[in-house]
Model the fold of this input.
Amino acid sequence: MRLILTRPQDDLEALVARLRMRGHTCIESPLFSIRMRDASVIPARFYQAIALSSANAMKHKALDPASDALAAIKVIAVGARSAKAARRAGFRDVRAEGGNVEGLARAIARDCNPSDGAILYPSGAETAGDLKGALEAHGFTVDRVILYDAIAATTLTPQAIGALDSGAADGVLLYSPRSARIWSQLVAESGLTGAARRIRHYCLSPNVAAALGAGFMSEVAARPDEPSLLALLDRSP
Done:
């Protein structure tokens, strides 16, 4: 299939390699660029665990490489990709749980005790859910430290526009409700909503599909993780 990829540029290389091995053609059109907040710092206090909802947080100089004071703290990550980023940064006790923010909150509430110390939550400025609020509802003290901004693209790439306009795209991969909303906005601004409605939208979760709006063909991964998302491609006509 000929697929439009919307991940940030830094995340595309590995995804492109996986898709090409499966025989797909990749059309790159990142919907975000990641900009680190260099002035952000991690508070100097004891944490019983780190709640990791995005691999991008591990690219910040405050966490990569992990300092001796942080490396031994257990990291409970939203998925395999985030867990891999934490291990690469030097964290030693890492596991993937939940698949989304709600599942991550449930896993932390199950395995951690509010009386054992605060939770560190490194994140971007915009998130798919309210992890801090969910954990605080379970009685945890949470330090949310914003380490980066995901800057929305203002247009699709010429390659994506050309592929939609000519009918040379079969589908698009969407990973978050925000990316789905930006996609809908940019195809409309390019006059390509009709063309976009003729291709399949492979969505990481039901929330992503809902954010597209009416009229788009969507398929939803069985689980909110990339292997499940890519598995949709194997079953697609």
User: Anything to note?
Assistant: The domain at 41-149 is CATH 3.40.50.10090 (Rossmann fold). Residues 24 and 90 are 34 Å apart (CA to CA). The chain has two domains: 2-33+153-235, 41-149.
